[in-house]
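User: I'm preparing a small set of examples for a lab meeting where we compare how different chains pack in three dimensions. I only have the primary sequence for this one, and I'd like the structure in token form so I can line it up with the others. Please keep the answer compact; I'll paste it straight into my notes.
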Amino acid sequence: MSNLHQLVYASEASISSGGKGVDLEVGRILTKSKNNNSKVSIGGVLYYADGYFFQVLEGDKAAIHLLYDKICKDERHAHAKILLERSIDSPQFSDWTMHFVPAGSSIRQLLKDYGLKHFTPFIFSEALTVTLVEVLSLNGKYTPQEKTKSSPKGLFSSIKGLFK
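Assistant: Understood. Below is the structure token output for the 164-residue chain.
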């Protein structure tokens, strides 16, 4: 059994956004993360939007829990909450000690497809969390899927087909 683990958490940012581009404080977090994570073989990605951090950490289970505990004590994060935790066979973020996906990526479309107007990770379903992790592993590239089976029209077509 592998000790490779993935932990996904969200927190409210206790920093003020500095307009467009990567906020100076977010830049500091990324620089420090890249340096420290490489020393303990942790990889991952950080997404910051609408006053929330969403981060995926991958590596040895004990190492990512130590890092998460440290993050919870960091004054730049408030109300940190684990959204997803699982054992994994192989990392999705092995090439990134800590990567940043900008808020201007197609993630806004993903949120819209899930009926959300704002990035509010504390209310994400597990399905949305898993999908967002996948989209982040693709550097924020999201291609909307056709919703034929889950849409009312697709559901009606499926039911109608039963009575032919």
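A couple of notes for your slides: Residues 10 and 54 are 4 Å apart (CA to CA). Residues 24-39 form the longest helix (16 residues).

User: Perfect, thanks.
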